[in-house]
Amino acid sequence: MVKRLLPALLLITVMATMNASALQDPTRPMDPALYFGNRHSGGTSDWALQSILSSAERRIAVINGTRVREGDRIGTARVVSIRPSHVVLNTGKRTLTLQLWPEPIRKMNP
User: Per residue in 7-43, is it b (16+ CB within 10 Å) or e — as a string?
Assistant: First the structure.
């Protein structure tokens, strides 16, 4: 009887150990806040422009890890406009331009 239970007990022990030390999925997207950070490092601005998605149907920007559209609010600022290389914010007291790239990326015609 002990000989029959020993393999089952060993299998249960191995399976429990495998669950405790499971590997992370390498294809799982990482948390944007860990990659980009929550603040613009070294600057005086509270907003960090991380990406812009621009198409004929919509324009979306990611600021501090939050997706915003024109007219949305992010903290104390309102998103005035989203362009291919920058986003304009208005805080009521001032207007800020967050630059993504020094020059806009242009489409090449084949």
Answer: eeeeeeeeeeeeeeeeeeeeeeeeeeeeebeeebeee
The better pLDDT of the pair 64, 40 is held by 64
CA quadruple 88, 33, 53, 78: dihedral sign: negative
In this prediction the pTM is 0.54
The ranges assigned to domains in the chain are: 1-105
Residue 83 has pLDDT above 50, yes or no: yes
> Which CATH architecture is the domain 1-105 placed in?
Roll (2.30)
- Residues listed for the chain: 110
- Answer whether 98's CB lies under 8 Å from 85's CB: no
